[in-house]
Structures are given as C-alpha cells and as structure tokens.
Design goal:
The protein has 546 residues and is mainly β. Among the domains are: 1-30, no CATH class; 36-227, Jelly Rolls (Sandwich), CATH 2.60.120; 241-363, Jelly Rolls, CATH 2.60.120. Helix content is 12%, strand content 41%. The protein contains 10 helices and 37 strands. The strands form 7 sheets. Strands 25, 27, 30, 31, 32, 33, 34 and 36 form an 8-stranded antiparallel beta sheet that branches. Strands 14, 16, 19, 20, 21, 22 and 24 form a 7-stranded antiparallel beta sheet that branches. Strands 3, 6, 9, 10, 11 and 13 form a 6-stranded antiparallel beta sheet that branches. The chain is globular.
C-alpha cells in the first residue's frame, strides 16, 4: 500500500483537537448521548414523533399489577383485581432496614412517566419515602415522599409533574446508563414507573441533582411551552366550509409535493345533539392511501358531545373549534375530508396548515382509527382490544369513551400491551383510570386536564360544568371520556403491537365502548381496524335515572 493511502486511512480514524487531544473521528460524528436535556427538548419537538426513533428503544413498565396474572388461559389469575400492596419485585434489607423494590432495571434507560395514587381516597398524602438508586450507587440520587416528589409541589415543577385527580404524576425524564432501582421504606400502595429501555451500548448520561439544578431554566421553558401549545405557529393555511349531507363530504386537497400537516381544525355550527361528534368522521388520505378514519370526538379527544379540553397535541375550545397539532408528513399529496353519517345535515368548517418537510427513511405516516361496540357485557371479565398493529411504527395515544348504565365504578380493568410478539405484556397496568393518570375512579368524577392526559367528561361533569366540592357522590353513570397522548412515553414497535383493556366493572351489566387510537407507521404498517360506518350509528343511549 502506498504511503499516501496509509496517511488517508490514519487521518480518517483519528482527529486532533485544538487542545492537543486526539479522538477517533467516529466519535465526532456519533449522535450526542441521551440525557435529561435531550429528552426535555424532545418532549416538545413535534417533528421527532413523526420519525422512527434514531435511538431505538422499547417502552416498559414496572407496576403493582397482580403477580397472579400469568396467562390468559387462567381467567381467575389473569383478571385478578388486587393490584396494590405487596405486588413488588422483592424486599431487600439495607443497614438493618427493609426496602420494598418497585423497579430494578439493568441497562441503559430513562424513566419517562411515573404515577402514584393517594392511599386514602378522601385524604391526600403518604408517609412512605421513595429512593431512586442509579448505576448501582449506594446512595440514592433522589429521595423523598412518594407523592411530594412528583406531584408538582416538590422536586419536579408543574406541569412536568402535577396533581391529577387523587394522584401524583410526573413526566420528567430520569436517565441512567447502567441501572435503575426504585424502593420504598414501607410497603407500597399502587404504583407505575414507565421507562425507556435502550439498546445495549446506547450512551446515556445519568441523571444527577447537579444536572437537574443546571437545567432549571430549560425545565421552566419546556413547561411554559406545554401550557401554551399554539404559540409560534405561522404555517400556511387552506380552509373551506359548507354543509355536510349524507352524500356530500367537505374536502380539502393538500398542496402537492413533499410537506406536512402541522395543524388541523374542525368546527361544527351546532353541537346540540351530542351524537354529532360520533357521526361526523374525519378521513385523511396521504399518497393515495387512507390512514385516518375516525369520528371527530374520538379523534380530538372530547368523546360524545362538546367537552372542552386542552392538551399539548389537541385542543377542543369552548366555541366548538377542535384542533390537533400532530405532524402529518407526506411525499406527494393528500386529501382531508369530513363525512356525515348522521340523519341531519351538518354545517362545518375545515382548516389545514402545512409546512415544508424533509422526507427520509425514518419518516412515517400519521394514522388514526376507531373501534366501537355496544353492548359490551361486563361478565365474564374480558380483554377488549383497542388495536393490533403489524409492521413497524410508533403508538402515540388514544381516547376512550364509555357508557356506564349503572352508578357503580366501571374501570377496574388493566391495560395489557404486547410489543414485537412477546410472550407476556411488557406493560401490564393497574386500572383503566391509572392508565389515564388519575386514581380512585369511582369517586374522581370531576373534569381534569393536563398536556398529556385528561378526563373531559364523567357522569354530568365537564369543563363547563365542574363538580362542586360539596358533591361527594361516586356516581359514574352515563358517559365518561378518558384521553391520553404520548411524548416521551411513545411506544415504538418493530414487528407488532397489541393493546388490550380489561372490561372489569363492579356490576353485571352491558356497557358501551368506543376508542380512537393514533399511531405513526410506514407505508406497509397495518392495523386490524377498518372503517365501520354502521357501528358509529350505534350510539349507546344514556341510562334512564330512577
């Protein structure tokens, strides 16, 4: 080999920096490590959710699900409802004292969501201390009261952590390179810690309190962005309005060429009939393929009727304007339509904002689908499938609307999520309301909202009709709407994803279920959901009171 060839190879392997140090050239081009700072910025980067993650990961969860749940073949264990005290990995002893181990993950990762409920449904608070050990350290990096740490009044500020209904919820990222162990000094109550499991060898910068303090200004900025989701949007808009009849949709053709929808809004002239949000359907085609077919209430997160709510990705305003801010890229063109399946004509406005998009091999199409069923018997207990996806993509959220014909609590059922053909769900929850980030659902019948989850309606209460403090009833009769959108807790899948929710009510009755589900996928990603124009007409009737 000639000398100049050897010199060329050598120069490609090493690079000398101005300070005299030499490093491998590949280290200069490698992406920056995952860190608290990078994940905080990712939390509000809407573009990133539309691309398959550069740092591939799988979302996992440590929870207090009942360990008797081992296989669907054993219904008694699979649907066991005792998902609280004692459901831990093990009990360790340190310095002569017990520590209940809630999570013990080995390898690089990041906690991206935590949830803890009140121990008493009428009284806030807990005397339990939580400790988080990272990378095998003997001293906990984080230590404090299990609720105060993550309820927005302690370590993590609002809205990255907050008090939902009778719960403490945090979305602040806690990163680690080698391991994460979470313990309590007393037997715990219900708990969920949702975390990203990165591929082995992924560089992750471990969380420190020094780093936390150094990033306070960034944390504040991210929080302000989450609470003001529409600031700074100046993209080009096209709009139309008109009358929707059963045979005449309202449509917009998207600009040709590679671009992305950055905002989509729908407003109806009249919401007097609550069924109008179920029987008016949003349909979107990208590059000659239909990827969205979903009733507008289930798509925008308000369920049956006009139930105002604001989140990071979606807003339903009090004047009836429904807006979503999911980025929806396409390569050549597309079409957005509103279709009316109801008996009466509907006056509607449709607006779409688009902007430039650089399409590459990680770009994905936005998808939304719907499933409805009425009646749904509560006995025997069953798993109700939200959606099953095959191919590669990222799951980003859902809205569940239920009709409960009785006043007793309906939502004891756990979510069970299988990813990439695993034998046991990597996410096994502790209750439907826990999945939507609140607790004590039989009593928590008030409206609440947060950038990533909300209860827009329960019983007769919504944002326009709040539950009085004097009302201590536990009546969950009628419609309830629960919604969740995902940011750091999105769920990538390489071959498949299946999301089921248990139907587990305290009453033997027939309920109504409807769910809108949202995900990103590649052109060959498929779901088991098809447009169902007949079922959207099967709107469960409100129960007649005594």
């Amino acid at each position: 080999m000639k000398l100049y060839q050897l010199l060329l190879i050598a120069s490609s392997l090493f690079l000398c920096l101005p300070n005299g140090a030499c490093v491998q050239a590949q280290d200069i081009t490698d992406p920056q490590p995952v860190s608290m700072e990078s994940l905080l910025n990712e939390m509000v980067d809407r573009d990133s959710i539309a691309r398959y993650p550069e740092r591939d990961f799988r979302l996992k969860q440590a929870s207090s699900y009942n360990r008797a749940s081992k296989t669907p073949d054993d219904a008694k264990g699979w649907f066991n409802n005792k998902d609280n005290s004692g459901q831990v990995i093990r009990v360790d002893e340190k310095d002569g004292k017990k520590e209940w181990v809630l999570m013990d993950h080995q390898g690089p990762g990041a906690i991206v969501r935590s949830w803890m409920p009140w121990r008493n449904q009428k009284r806030p608070g807990s005397k339990n201390t939580m400790r988080i050990y990272l990378d095998g350290q003997e001293t906990p990096v984080i230590e404090g009261n299990v609720l105060k740490l993550f309820d927005g009044t302690g370590l993590v500020p609002y809205p990255l952590a907050h008090q939902s209904l009778r719960s403490a919820v945090s979305f602040f990222p806690i990163t680690y390179q080698k391991s994460c162990k979470i313990v309590t000094d007393q037997k715990p109550f219900f708990f969920q810690f949702t975390y990203r499991e990165y591929d082995k060898g992924t560089p992750v910068e471990t969380f420190t309190m020094e780093g936390f303090e150094a990033n306070r200004a960034l944390t504040k900025r991210i929080g302000l962005q989450l609470l003001a989701p529409t600031i700074g949007q100046t993209d080009d808009a096209v709009a139309t309005k008109g009358r929707l009849t059963t045979d005449k949709p309202l449509s917009l053709t998207l600009p040709e060429g590679t671009a992305a929808i950055s905002e989509l809004s729908v407003k109806l002239a009249d919401y007097t009939d609550p069924k109008v949000t179920r029987q008016t359907v949003l349909k979107i085609e990208f590059d000659d393929k239909e990827t969205v077919w979903c009733p507008i209430g289930d798509f925008f997160g308000c369920g049956i009727g006009l139930n105002p709510v604001q989140g990071w990705y979606r807003t339903v305003a009090e004047d009836g304007t429904m807006t979503c801010r999911w980025i929806m890229p396409y390569q050549n063109g597309g079409r957005v339509s509103l279709v009316n399946f109801g008996d009466n004509d509907v006056e509607a406005e449709l607006s779409v904002k688009t902007r430039d998009w650089k399409w590459d091999e990680s770009s994905m199409y936005f998808n939304a689908a719907w499933r409805g069923q009425y009646p749904v018997p509560t006995q025997p207990y069953s798993d109700w499938n939200y959606v099953t996806l095959t191919g590669r993509g990222v799951y980003v959220g859902d809205t569940l609307t239920v009709m409960n014909p009785v006043d007793r609590w309906w939502g004891e059922g756990d979510e069970k999520i299988w990813v990439d053909g695993e034998d046991f769900p990597s996410i096994f929850g502790t209750g439907t309301e826990d999945y939507y980030a609140y607790s004590w659902g039989g009593r928590s019948t008030d409206f609440y909202e947060h950038p990533f989850h909300a209860q827009p309606l329960c019983n007769k209460y919504n944002k326009l009709n709040r539950k009085p403090k004097s009302d201590q009833s536990k009546n969950t009769q009628g419609y309830s709407v629960e919604t969740r959108s995902r940011s750091l807790d999105t769920m990538p899948f390489g071959t498949s994803l299946q999301l089921d929710m248990e139907v587990w009510s305290w009453s033997d009755c027939d309920m109504g279920y409807g769910v809108g589900v949202y995900w990103y996928g590649f052109a060959d990603t498929r779901s088991n959901r098809e447009p169902d124009s007949q079922e959207i007409l099967n709107v469960p009737p409100l129960p007649v009171g005594p």
